[in-house]
TrEMBL record:
Record-stated family: Belongs to the TRAFAC class translation factor GTPase superfamily. Classic translation factor GTPase family. EF-Tu/EF-1A subfamily.
All copies of domain Tr-type G, residue ranges: 85-281
Pfam families per the UniProt record, alphabetical: GTP_EFTU (PF00009), GTP_EFTU_D2 (PF03144), GTP_EFTU_D3 (PF03143)
Protein known as: Elongation factor Tu
Alphabetical GO biological process terms: mitochondrial translational elongation
Source species taxonomy: Eukaryota, Sar, Alveolata, Apicomplexa, Aconoidasida
Keywords on record: Apicoplast, Elongation factor, GTP-binding, Nucleotide-binding, Plastid, Protein biosynthesis
Native species: Plasmodium inui San Antonio 1
Record PANTHER family: ELONGATION FACTOR TU, MITOCHONDRIAL, ELONGATION FACTOR TU-RELATED
Amino acid sequence: MISGRRNLLVVVPGGGAPSLVRSASRVVDALGRSSHGSGRSIYGGGTTTHHDRTIRWNVGSPERRRQPFFLTSRHFAIGVFERKKPHMNIGTIGHVDHGKTTLTAAITKVCANQNRGTFKSYEEIDKTPEEQKRGITINATHVEYETEKRHYSHIDCPGHLDYVKNMITGTSQMDGSILVVSAYDGLMPQTKEHVLLSRQIGIEKMIVYMNKIDMCEDKELVDLVELEIRELLSFHKYDGDNIPIIKGSALKALNEDQSEYGVPSILKLLDACDNYIDEPKRKMDLPFLMSIDDVLQISGKGTVATGRVEQGTLKLNDPVEIMGIKEKPIKTVVTGIEMFRKTLDAAQAGDQIGVMLKNVKKNDISRGMVVTKVPNLKTYKKFESDVYVLKNEEGGRKNPFSSYYRPQAYIRTADVNCAVILNEDTQVANPGDNIKCTIELMYPLALASGLRFSLREGGRTVASGIITKVI
C-alpha cells in the first residue's frame, strides 16, 4: 500500500506487478505529494509511461484525490519487453495426440529451470474447457522462452483434422517449425498434411522431435519411422537427409527425468533450433502491416487485435488503417502495444503482438483483416495466379475440376470462399497440373503480388499457389 498526505490513497494489492508500485511512487512524488508520510519515495527501473499516465490521470486532479484509487495488475501488462536477443517465431506441428502440447510444456519447464522463461503447464496451454474436455488442442496457443542465443515465440498448433484452419493461421506466423512424430505410431495423415502446408506457406527449415521413444522398444521400428520421416521431408523439398531428428520423451522431460530421453533431449532440441533454423531477413524498411489472427475485448481497456508483424515498425500513437473483408477501411490510432503481456514502445517485423485500437469495437474487426500503415493500400476480390493442383497421393483430389470450382482460399490469416476460373486454353485442371487461373473471392482482402495461398475442400488441401497480379 502506498499512502500519501492529506486525502490521497493509492492501493496496490499484493498481486500487483512491482512496476506498478514503482510508477505510483514516482508519479505521486512528481505531483508534490510524497508516496510516504515520511517524505521518502521508492524508485525503480522498468516502469513505463503507460503506467505513469494512468496513475497521473487518477491521482493528479483534486476531485479524484478525495477517493482511494485501487490499482491492479489487470489494468496493465506485467512488465516491459526488453529486446536483448534476436526474436524468432517457432512452433510445434504434427498429428493429433503425438505430444505437441506436452513437448511445448516440457520446453517451457526446462527453460524456466534455467531462468529463461516461465513454465506453462499442459492445462495452461490447452486452456479452453473444450480443449481440456476432449484432450486436444483447438486454437493455436503462444508461449515464450529464451535460449542462450535467442528469444522465441512458440506456437502450439492443433493437430486435429477439424481445426486445420487454426493450424494454418499458426503456421503462417512461424519462421521455423518442430515436427512432432510419435515413434510408436509413425507417420499419420495430419503429419503429412502439416508438412505439406508448411512448405506451401514458405517455412524453409524444420526440425523433427521423435516423441514417445520410451514406448517403442523395437529399434528397427524406430529406424523405419525415421527413414519414412526423412523420405516425407525430401518429397516436399526439405533437406530430408540432414534435418536434425531428436529422439526423446516429452513426458519424461516434463517430469524432469534426467535420462537420455528426458531433459537432455529438450536441450538437444533447443540447440538444434538455435543452430539449424536461420534467422529470417525481416522487412524492416517497408511500411507496417500485420494480419489479424484474433480479436480480444479487454475489460476496461478496449479492443485488441493480435497477430504477427509481417513488415515494418509500429509505435504508440501511430495512425493505422484496418482493411479487408469490409468495403471501407477503418481509421484508428494505436494506444497500446504488448507482447506476451509485456509493453512495447515499438514493434517490428517478426514480433507477435497485441495492438490496442482506439474507438474500435470488437465486432468491427475480425481475423483475416490487416492493420497497416501502407499508403494507398487497396483491397481486391480478384487476382491472377499460378497454381499447382495436388495429386491424390499428396493428399489432394482424385478427380479433375473445371472452371468455377468453389473451394476455400487461405491467404495470410483469412479463409474465404472463392471461385477458380480456368484460362481459356485450359478445359480442366487435373491432379498434378501446374495451371494459370483467376480466383474470385467472396469478399475483399488486402492483397499483393507474390503472396502465397492454399485452396482447400472437404478437409484437405487441394492446391497451392502464388498471386501474380491483383485485379
